[in-house]
Amino acid sequence: MARAYLTEFKATEEDLARVAVKNHENGFLNPKAHLQKKITIDDVMNSAVVASPLKLYDCCPFSDGASSVILCSEKFAKENGGDYIEVIGSGRGGSPAALQGREHMTTIPSTKIAADAAYKMAGITPKDVDFAEVHDCFTIAEVVDTEDLGFFEKGKGVEAVREDRTKLNSDISINPSGGLKSKGHPIGATGVGQVAEVYDQLTGKAGQRTVKDAKIGLTHNFGATGASCAVHLFQSV
Amino acid sequence: MEKVCVLGAGSTKYGKLEDSISDITVQSSAAAIESAGIDPKDIKAGYISNVFGVADKQVHLGPVIMSNLGISERPSLSIESACGSGSVSFREAYANVAAGFYDCLLVTGVEKVTHTGTEWTTTYFAYCSDFFL
């Protein structure tokens, strides 16, 4: 997918490295992150090739971990008291399990299906989203995700990265937690961990990595190469 | 449909953890319960997401977690969709609250694989693809 994207949209490995650097900057501010350290573009470019053009630092780590949330009706939340946020959209989608079953290598069909359903349920568009926790198992995935979620046109996601428009408190904060890349990826926990991050962000508990004035957050999580996807939208009350 | 809310959240640190899969799940769940300011008895069911519990010799995690939280009579289930397990489980929990089946649920995701080493962890992850294609 990376090779196809770099070729079709004339992007470079340095562009992808920039995603890893950004996510480590964010993860450095996250006390729960697996890889809580800053890295440079050179660190990424000099790391061992795993599957060209992806190098070690283009890939998220294997991690242990657990994340949990309490989900309830609004009635329960109000009676109980305490900070709560509302789930305003939920969408699911699927893609062919085998990559050769897909029409294009530079998009993940399940993301679009899930995102469309979630935006429709919430009655909003991608422009209304203030920050998003997206599935960045590899640097290329984050770029493709931001396009499939509608934040940028196909092929323009990499320009946004180049221009620092997905950094914390830029045009749209992508992976303020540090993402899978820096926060880590305990695979059964990650999707719930993203919701935990959105909860912390929208209830003022995200400390130094707070997305300022955020009202709407999105989570995007998929299995393997995108065969199973779910997108959720949340709003502060 | 009922309006659905997230009332609390908790996580362990992510990384190489020493405690068992059950222990880290209970730690995270307890943190979310405290964050929400609820009593464990308020939880009507547990939605667990986990892919390779077998790596730490523990599948059927739900009843273990619910028992450790002192609510063994509450039902639970485990959901698996590879790396998407957490959000897929969250969606199922969401649908059950929206439909009015439950008013308060615990949604917990967990993974504990690093102790198996790089070769086995990589192999496990490869099982998430169309492995026998």
Concise synopsis of the structure shown:
The complex is a heterodimer of chains A (237) and B (133). Helix content of chain A is 35%, strand content 19%.
Task: Please identify the oligomeric state.
Answer: heterodimer
List unreliable stretches of 5+ residues of chain B.
none
Biggest interface pair, counts:
A-B, 66 and 72 residues
Taking the alpha carbons of the first and last residues of chain A, their distance comes to 39 Å
Q: What structural category characterises the helix and strand content of chain B? A: alpha/beta
Share in β-strands of chain A: 15-25%
SSE series of chain A: HHHEEEHEHEHHEHHEE
Main sheet specs of chain B: 3 strands, parallel
| Helix fraction bin of chain B | 25-40%
**Average pLDDT reading of chain A:** 97
Helix content of chain A: 25-40%
From the alpha carbons, calculate the radius of gyration of chain B and give it in angstroms. Answer: 15 Å
What is the global morphology of chain A?
globular
- Kindly report the spatial arrangement of strands forming the biggest sheet of chain A: 4-8-7-5-6
Task: Give a written overview of the molecule.
The complex is a heterodimer of chains A (237) and B (133). Chain A has 237 residues and is an alpha/beta fold. Chain A has helices at 2-8, 13-27, 41-45, 74-80, 109-122, 139-148, 157-162, 179-183, 190-202, and strands at 49-51, 54-55, 65-73, 85-94, 131-133, 173-174, 216-223, 228-236. In chain A, strand 7 (216-223) and strand 8 form a beta hairpin. In chain A, helix 2 crosses helix 6. Chain A is globular. Chain A starts with a helix and ends with a strand. The mean pLDDT of chain A is 97. The mean pLDDT of chain B is 95. In chain B, strand 2, helix 2 and strand 3 form a beta-alpha-beta unit. By secondary structure, chain B is α/β, with parallel strands linked by helices. In chain B, helix 1 (21-36) packs across helix 2 (61-68). The chains are: A alpha/beta (237), B alpha/beta (133). At the A-B interface, strand 3, helix 4, strand 4, helix 9 and strand 7 of A face strand 1, helix 1, helix 3, strand 4 and helix 4 of B.
